[in-house]
Amino acid sequence: MSVADYEPVIGLEVHCQLETASKMFSACPVGLLAPPNTLVDAYTLGLPGTLPVPNARAVHHGIALALACGCQLHERSRFARKHYFYPDLPKGYQITQAHEPYATGGSLEVPGFRDAEGRPKRVPLVRIHFEEDAGKNVHVPGEDHSLIDYGRAGAPLLEIVSEPTIGSPEEAAAYLRELRTLVRTLGISQANMEEGTLRCDANVSVRRRGSTALGVRCEIKNLNSFRFLAQAIAAEIRRQIDLLEQGQVIESVTLSYDVERDRTRVMRSKEDAADYRYLPEPDLPPLWISSEWIDRVRSELPPLPAARRAGYLAQGISEDDAVLLASEPALGDYLDRTLAAGAPAKKASNWLTVELLGKLNADGIGIERSPVTPEALAELIAMVEADEVSGRAAKAIFASLYGELRESEGSTPPLTPRTIAERDGHRQVSDAGVLEAAVREVLAGHPEQVQQFRAGKTKVRGFFVGQVMKKTRGQANPQVLGELLDRLLGEDD
Amino acid sequence: MSTISRQECHELASLARLSLNEEEAERFAAELSPILAYLEQLQAVDTMGVEEHLPPSRPPLGPSGPVGSTGAVGPAGSSSGLRDDVTAPPLPRERALAGVPEVLDGHVKVPKFKKD
Amino acid sequence: MTPNRIIELSARAIARHVREGSLRATEVLEAFEARADATEPVLHAYLLRARDEARTAAEAIDGARAAGHPLGALAGVPIGLKDLFVIEGMHTRAGSRILEGWIPPYQGTHAARLLGAGAVITGKLAMDEFAMGSSNENTPYEPVRNPWDPRYVPGGSSGGSAAAVAAGSCAAALGSDTGGSIRQPASLCGVVGLKPSYGRVSRHGMIAFASSLDQAGPIARDVRDAAALLQVLAGPDPLDATCVDAPVPDYLASCDRGAAGLRVGVHREALASEGLDPEVAKAFEHALAVLQDAGATLVDVELPHAEHAIATYYVLCTAEAASNLARYDGLRYGARIARASLRETYEATREAGFSAEVKRRILLGTFVLRKDSYAAYYGQAQKVRRLIARDYARAFEGCDLIASPVSPVPGFAVGERSHDPLTMYLSDVFTIGANLAGLAAISIPAGLSAATSGRPALPIGVQLMAPALQEPTLLAAAAAHEDATDHHRLRPPDPPRSATASEPDPGAGGAS
Question: Which of A166, A171, A409, C427 is least crowded, fewest Cβ atoms below 10 Å from its Cβ?
Fold first, then answer.
């Protein structure tokens, strides 16, 4: 058999740190770049006599994500203790939600991927639940000790578990990107893989194409970038297919990804997996989420990426642009404001993705700090649409507007596309009377070329256009000019 | 009737990070077996349809219910037992680490380990 | 006032004197300290005497009064805390070597509220390690002795608290009760022990044994003192999510309501058990008669699942204990036995830090929580617990209170039972129902057993139980009983008999 005879089945377990001021179960501040063991309180350190009290904002954030994914929200859920001994786990157990998570079901649309029926691919979710983070271990090479920083311990996390229905490494990366987009859009997480506020484990199995049974799954831990996620899954698929091709059986193991050698490495066998001795958390009453609370969160939800994409596609925006523009809440917001100011969708999306993002990316500026406002962009587009300025002039206006606003940082009197067009003489002349005089003047000044044209050398027409443009400093409406030229050149002297 | 072997005592001890010598394992096995046998009476109780006991809590009182006592975010309807997302000062590091048996560079120092 | 008169005062009277200026807090403290100096060499009720902190606190009270500041409800009252209560800056061990050297960097709710009310904390009282035990013998330290006869145990696990209050080495004390650990030692030492309803008093700052059963409460010399302490301790706490958010009634006022019209339930079936000492049965019947004289009526109640209470309790408490004690790994606090590898460090630390009884319960708790035994043990026990709670709820439809003995025996000698954990567990039969069902319960003095050749005269307690949050009813009946009797005025021998002179021979019944 060959590689093509197998298909991978992938499920992701994603941990997302929630954006809150305090930790999941105590008032200790949360932070990313604090010196070791400075963001700790009695609870964080697991000191005897301390008790957990859940953070209502973390729950609020969890409700928002569950709503955005169409999960079933459970009125009553429970926390549980998951026991294992590990130095970064201060209490000897982690508070998580085990048998009664607050949200189950739902799905996440993966942009750019289609299901068997050709519809946009949706990856179903098993569950979403709350838990608290562990501390950080620092292993010092060559030393006989390790060091622990409990600053991250107790940070609020959501764990989002997908069904194993992801079909390729690329789809897995796209799923994770979409999840990142979603939580950022909701404003519930910074979801930054480099900083560890978004983390991913992948369950991978392979099976014969056409088979419906799942193969033995292996778990790859700690995939900390989109690229490594896809590479690691691809490497693991290769490893499993190789084993099967050699007639071996796949054992359920936990793996890590070796970036240098681009292969997965077995960390431990699942056989000796710990018995976590789950215990319903006796220190916490059930978590009650009322329908009223859910309604309130729902009413405050921002436009969601999938809905945005669908809306953009329906307005004629290309799929690539729609995915791009819905990928960052600030981008989508920018586009939506541009559209709200009256710009046609396709034009607005072109201007935004080509001109504006081109400049912003070159300058390393985020869209939220764009010197050109959506309203100004819409005005410029409207001027082009109304033939007030030519496309070329519009680009010049845009360049001036962007450059000058960026220089002045808004301190000069208001600059708009129109004021620049006036100031720099970019306004297009569409008045046939005005243009006719200019055309006649040009024709009169170049009798030789007129002769050539009439002799059949129609290429000379471009020469006349250039001359008129020069005369009108580029302001002539090309269409009106063309019609005039054709008419006047067709006239007999 | 359940009894518990020395081997099982060792396994339980390992899960709980206790180390038992043979003598202790023997003694605990002898002591725990009659206790387990006594606890086995619970299996005979008919608990069909009975839910597990829950800690006291106040379910939400519905759309017209009172605001949660914590005045939590999304407060109306949030149950008691939650707190607002408000911070309190963390422990100063010297106090946080004062009782730690071994400290190095502001970290808690432990024997080297790898994930097991 | 002479020191001997001072230590005879109730906590309420002390606070009144201190507020009115007829006694100084320092003077009160000195009287109780002198008493402790005399009794401690025999009783060992204190694990730690906080002489300096107590003196500073007492001086602050006197200073506040001199400055004209208002004083709290417990102004100048010397109060001891069981060692599992966290007091910021004070060595706290929960009676275990594994916490040796731990100085909490945060303040527990109980200490904060008591200090806020003007109490003077005299120190940390001895206990069974991590509150696991009924005799105070589960300790790596000197076991506490019963002030009535040092050859006898004070009960447990709050044995130090009960012994100290009985001996007068503090005016009142704080204990914790998971399966009877306030009430049983109170009964064995002849004082009042109140276990509030689950969630009535915060657990923040109380080192956990079994979280769903643990409750803090006062041990005092009379019912009204217990009420006065509860008044200070009770009420919601933002640091404990299981603390009940209900208003706190005037407990002292409810002590004066009397017992007239109250229906007192008796579970006759439980009394028929063969383990019940005749002296205990006699004292119990007498207490019922006193309540009837005070206007209460008796009704029989049924508790069909009561026979499963002990099994239920031991599944739950060991599972939760195994979980709660997982944090003691020697990495962040307490004693570490350093070894080359992490795993060996864990094991050596826990091996050296925990006593045999604690290990026994951790092993049992680990067993019942294992994946393959959870449903049959822990899950099933939580269901049976619900049935037990339902039994009580049904019983309380026909009565206001349920009365029972506290301990099946008046007491037992040091060493008499420590070899047999199951028998020790079975002696909790009357007390654990209140913990399983989250009820309010109190142990009140009901007289002394008759001295025999095999056993000296020892105090006997009687238990009253009320539905959750019905402490006012509980206190009304308990105070009515107390007002009609003199049992609470009985005092152990002073000075205490020496324990070492005549160790009892358990096999021979202890007489010498």
Answer: A409
Are both A26 and A161 inside the same structural domain?
yes
Looking at the fold, whether A283 and A343 belong to one and the same domain comes out as: no
Q: Which of helix, strand or coil describes residue A331?
A: helix
CATH 3.90.1300.10 fits C3-306+383-451+458-503, yes or no: yes
CB C327 to CB A51 under 8 A?
Answer: no
Q: Do C334 and B95 touch (CB under 8 A)?
A: no
User: Token pair of B113, please?
Assistant: 């380990």
- C4-24 burial code (b ≥16 CB/10 A, e <16): eebbebbbbebbbbbbeeebb
Cβ(C442)–Cβ(C183) below 8 Å: yes
* Residue-number span of the structural domain to which A465 is assigned: 432-490
Strand, coil or helix: A410: coil
pLDDT at B58: 63
Name the minimum distance, in Å, from the CA of C105 to any CA of chain A.
Answer: 7
Beta-carbon count within 10 A of A462 CB:
10
Give the amino acid at C384.
V
Residue A484, both tokens: 């005039």
User: If you search the block for the tokens 């708009």, which residue do you land on?
Assistant: A416
Can you tell me which residue has the tokens 């436009």? A303
E strand spans, A307-405? none
pLDDT of residue A271: 57
State the number of CA atoms in the 13 A half-sphere of A382 facing the CB. 15
Chain B interface, best mutation among C363, C419, C426, C435, by max B CB count within 10 A = C363
B1: closest CA of chain A, how far (Å): 23
Q: Which of C10, C96, C135, C157 is catalytic?
A: C157
User: C157 an active-site residue?
Assistant: yes
- Are the CB atoms for C81 and C110 separated by under 8 Å? yes
Q: Report the CATH number at residue B14.
A: 1.10.20
Provide block-wise average pLDDT over 10 residues at a time, chain A (493 residues): 87 98 98 94 98 96 98 96 96 96 97 90 97 94 92 98 96 96 96 95 94 90 92 96 93 93 87 83 93 94 93 93 90 94 94 94 92 93 87 89 83 79 80 84 88 86 87 81 85 63
Written as six digits, the tokens of C35 are: 């008493």
Question: Residue B36's domain spans which residues?
Answer: 6-44
Residues in chain C within 8 Å Cβ distance of A280: 382
Residue spans of chain C under pLDDT 50: 501-512
Cβ proximity of B7 and B20 under 8 Å: no
**Chains linked to B by 3 or more Cβ pairs within 8 Å:** A, C
- Interface check for B113 against chain C (CB to CB < 8 A): the answer is yes
Rounded Cα gap, residues B5 and C222, in angstroms:
49
- ipTM, 2 decimals? 0.95
The SS3 call for residue C82 is strand
Name the residue in chain A with its Cα closest to that of C345.
A87
